[in-house]
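WARN no homologs supplied; continuing
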Amino acid sequence: MTDERTVDLPGVTLAYRESGPADGPPLVLLHALGERASDWDVVLPALAPGHHVHALDLRGHGDSGRPGAYGLPEMRDDVLAFLDALGLARVDLVGHSMGGAVAYLLAQAAPQRVHRLVLEDIPALYPRPASALPDEPDEDVHFDWAMVRAVRAQLDDPDPAWREGLAGITARTLVVAGGAASHVPQERIAELARRIPDCRLVTIEAGHLVHGARPEEFVAVVAPFLSE
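OK structure emitted
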């Protein structure tokens, strides 16, 4: 059973989906840019039985607030405030793409809060040519376009400290790469894995949306790592 909840944090209200046994070890799932908590539903049945799972809508996404102030550090701080609000002292943390960047920024800033870390198809971030944004559609979407513009600008020109800070992550880490079909440079993902001290890299030839395209293979790798 999955319950949909909200929590009021400083500056934003976050929506989240809660499932799994209440006494299970806490697991927090962070989605990619433009996605929402329900993106994890395809793997949730296989992860929830062994964990108390919290899948978040990050600010500007889904049913969470749209405060107008956006960026990866703001999302990191929201997740830390979420852990404090729910009394979660230490969690396992899984992040896909943008959510992976948020996850590793959190693991840098508060290493004592992260037990195990799973990063799905997110590279060590370097400056890149500015990416073109599609035209905004007339109909409503489940994310704020102002958030997309702000986050894409940061991904195009990231703070070098985010890359250097990878060496300070103390959590046991699993990096899941999407292989040749992914648009993400796989050599940058390999670099990410090398920079994190206690880290293992696994490639699943699925493209960027690993857990969506190959859910059984994703779970076969991630579930044992989380239960070690």
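The chain has a mean pLDDT of 95.
OK
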